[in-house]
Design a protein that fits this description.
Helix content: 25-40%
Shape: elongated
Length: 474
């Protein structure tokens, strides 16, 4: 009885327990004002991000746009597969095409990206088109035709990523395994290693030996052997969720039939010996390298290959996610790393400067950016030029208004504005973070003044520096 009474008493406030009135449904209790303010802040933040295109869904759409771009698909005039041509690779079990997801980076020490199969009928696009290349140009196979038993590499298209990626697998280990099936993991890597070497074999084990050194026909069933482990590329109906929805896992595993009836019958007839493989691979291992049904598929407008500008654009988007101080903050990191004061960094320092600021790129990416931005050919990057490239340019209308603001600050009309001039007119009390209670006016003032890192330490803000400030505030 005591416990029941105690539970009932817990449902009332102390005032109610002393005989006071109960709350009705219109009474606001608790931190109702804080809840309302929080909702208003969230709404403002949402509208602000929506106007800037910084919503997570918008960023995802930008990333997916290049992967889903339609690209040329090669037609085979002679019905055979050729090196350098663009093909789709279809799996029999999932009825899905092999696809690359450059947004799904595989955890580990090296740069690797996930592959899956997609059965949504996606057609030829940058993430579903692959090419084949020779492992050894002097392998003894003539011409550009692909042969059974020939060692090949499977490469992604030039449109989906800023560098070549190669299909790779490796033996199962505590650190490397397929995410769901725990078979051999399959991914695409940047290095031409032996783990990225494959052979195409005839689907019928009884004809496999005879088919060796014969050309591979397009649109015919085949199996793909991983040379390093002698197991076969596979895909099964194991759901794999990513930014593109539900797809299927790809792994390396030999799905072979278990019965021996066919092998015993052939041995009895003397058509094969014990040492020849006779087990058929199951549908998980069966693939078809598909060429286009007509030559019209080759005449798709070129969407433009992935360039270093796209890589820099990705870095810029990551910086803008930090707000208007993102690019300036990176500039201060670069300045601290500039030991000799020449405002230049080599590729290694440039890479670690980005890393210290929370942006991870590979050494190859850093070298590519440095090579692109290196104007005098000394192997270094002028980080002022790089930051200007990140900021971009203002349109003429906005530049006109910025010029008017600068003229207002320039009290004596000598074309020079001092930090004191800016500080005298800057009112931090109207800053959104002050209004929302996130920061004090003093904190905003210090943060604002710290941005004016003039090129010459004379306390003067030139018009070019003033323009640079508003380039990031777009």
């Amino acid at each position: 009885i005591f416990q029941s009474t105690a539970v009932k008493m817990m449902n009332f406030t102390p005032q109610q327990q002393m005989g006071g009135p109960k709350y009705n449904h219109k009474t606001r209790i608790g931190n109702w004002l804080e809840d309302m303010e929080l909702e208003e802040i969230r709404l403002k933040d949402y509208l602000k991000k929506k106007d800037k295109g910084d919503l997570s869904i918008s960023n995802t759409e930008k990333k997916l746009a290049r992967s889903l771009a339609k690209i040329p698909w090669s037609f085979s005039n002679d019905g055979l597969l050729h090196f350098g041509k663009k093909y789709m690779i279809l799996n029999k079990m999932t009825n899905g095409c092999l696809v690359l997801d450059v947004g799904d980076k595989i955890p580990g020490g090296e740069e690797a990206y996930a592959v899956t199969t997609n059965d949504k009928g996606i057609g030829p696009m940058s993430r579903s088109i692959f090419t084949f290349s020779k492992v050894d140009e002097n392998d003894g196979y003539p011409g550009d035709v692909i042969y059974y038993g020939q060692k090949v590499r499977v490469e992604c298209s030039d449109y989906v990523f800023h560098k070549k990626l190669f299909l790779r697998s490796q033996t199962v280990s505590p650190q490397a395994y397929a995410r769901f099936s725990r078979h051999q993991e399959v991914s695409m890597v940047t290095k031409k290693i032996y783990d990225a070497t494959w052979e195409i074999e005839h689907v019928d084990p009884n004809n496999r030996l005879e088919a060796k050194y014969q050309p591979v026909k397009a649109n015919s069933p085949i199996i793909v052997k991983h040379c390093a482990t002698a197991h076969y590329l596979a895909s099964d109906k194991i759901d794999y969720r990513n930014d593109f929805g539900s797809e299927y896992e790809v792994a390396v595993h030999s799905y072979a039939t278990l019965n021996k009836s066919q092998q015993l019958a052939l041995e009895q007839k003397g058509k094969l010996t014990r040492d020849l493989p006779t087990k058929f691979q199951k549908d998980q291992n069966i693939w078809m390298i598909m060429s286009a049904p007509s030559v019209e598929f080759e005449n798709v407008p070129d969407p433009g290959k992935f360039t270093v500008e796209d890589l820099i654009s990705e870095i810029k988007n990551k910086l803008l996610e930090r707000g208007s101080y993102g690019i300036r903050g990176l500039g201060r990191v670069f300045k601290n790393m500039d030991e000799n004061g020449n405002r230049k960094l080599d590729a290694e320092d440039f890479k670690w400067g980005l890393y210290n600021y929370g942006i991870s790129i590979s050494k190859e990416d850093a070298l590519m950016i440095v090579k692109t931005c290196d104007r005098d050919g000394d192997g270094n990057i002028n980080y002022d030029e790089f930051l200007r490239w990140l900021r971009g340019e203002l349109n003429e209308e906005r530049k006109k208004w910025v010029a008017l603001a600068y003229q207002k600050l320039d009290k004596n009309g000598d074309g020079k504005v001092t930090l004191e001039d800016i500080a005298a007119l800057y009112d931090a009390s109207h800053h959104p973070d002050v209004i929302d209670g996130k920061k004090t006016p003093e904190e905003i003032y210090k943060e604002f003044m710290s941005q004016w890192d003039t090129q010459v330490a004379d306390g003067i803000v030139t018009f070019d520096e003033f323009i640079d400030y508003y380039k990031v505030k777009r």
